[in-house]
Amino acid sequence: MIENKLNLAVFISGRGSNLQSLIDACQEDNYPAQISVVLSNKPNVQGLERAKKAGIPTLTIPHKDFETKEAFEGTILEALKDYPIDLICLAGFMRILSPYFIGHWPDKIINIHPSLLPDYKGLNTHERALADGQKEVGCTIHHVVPEMDSGPIIMQKKVPVLDGDTPETLAERVLEQEHIAYPEAVRLLAETR
């Protein structure tokens, strides 16, 4: 059993498949991290059920309940004070965090993105990669900075583009690599802190 595990807050907006890969990793005795809380900006998503099933505390803070991003993020910052957190993992969290929020957690927020950054920042990564005739795509885990998808890269996994690939088939194969990469990247950060 490892002592002084890295305490994670995982932010989600949907089904939570990357969250599940982190839950599974954290259940291993020799894994150097544990999840303190899962936060969703959308109620009733599958990821919240995954967390509850694993006995992990959850928070639901719907962004639609707030008139401003500042109010939304301020509520999140306040809520996080109740949990021991060393690192925030964005796992399909579909909100762009402000410099104000990121400034509260410098070098302590990471994100997973379904492309080999710096290529294809933002949305529709697989459609754009196929349209450009890319032979290789993948996923990136990176530190979050105010500029979207621009922070220092922690890890990447590559996936070949196959003949006949669609955005959906490509997304499926990239997601398999995301599920491997995210726990590996968290382990790396926990072991090098």
Descriptive account of the structure:
This protein is 36% helix and 22% strand. It has helices at 17-26, 46-53, 69-80, 99-104, 125-131, 167-192; strands at residues 6-12, 33-40, 58-60, 87-90, 109-113, 136-143, 153-160. It has a seven-stranded mixed β-sheet, with helices on one face. α4 (99-104) links the parallel β4 and β5 (109-113). α5 (125-131) packs across α6. It has a single domain, classed as Rossmann fold, CATH 3.40.50.170. By secondary structure, it is of the alpha/beta class. The longest helix is centred in the last third of the chain and has 26 residues, at 167-192.
CATH structural class:
Alpha Beta
| Strands in their spatial order, largest beta sheet | 3-2-1-4-5-6-7
Percent range for helical residues? 25-40%
Described by strand count, sense and barrel closure, the largest sheet is: 7 strands, mixed
Using only C-alpha atoms, the radius of gyration works out to 16 Å
